[in-house]
Amino acid sequence: MTNDDHNSEARRAASILIEVLDLPDNAATVGQELSLIDRDQVLTVFAAEFESTAGPAAFLVYVYRLDQTGDDGRRGHDRFRDDLETLETAARLDTPGPRTVSHAQAGDHALIVATTPAVWRALRGEPDGAAVADPALSEKERGEQALALLGHLRAAEDAAERWLAVTDASGRHNLTPEETELSLFLNDERSIKNLLQALNQVLAASRPPRL
Question: Does 112 score more than 90 pLDDT?
Fold first, then answer.
């Protein structure tokens, strides 16, 4: 793909973001905020964070080249259709994964704008399902949740170690669909807000008092 092709796709991605999020900037300005996440024969994926009605939010823009054919033999048109159906099914069944904010097709390209489930719900005016703090939380419940958190952190560390090992072994730099989903999750600053707050609170409580 030439640099002109890349710039053209970035402008397409910027244009749909401007329309969907009602951004005040032009396509050239918004395009500078886009980060290239992945690219193959039929698909280019950009990521960016913008202000929205839900506050700062991370978005992915999938740009499909409809007439191109990938290594798996699927044309861009088929992959666009399949990916859109997968995203819409995930939203309907409330399963993990990105949510479709908007999609469009023009000429030989198609685009999907996606975001996290929490931002998607906020954009739709739905409650985010956050847990309500219980001021009467018992010591036993605190202990149970601390052990659960410890177990998940150990599992996450093990998963990260295995991912690094297979990534180094494969030598592949393009993101898989699952890694793209992880990227979207991490690009949303609210995704691990509670986790960071809990860890900082535990660390602060474990430090000896200053004399």
Answer: yes
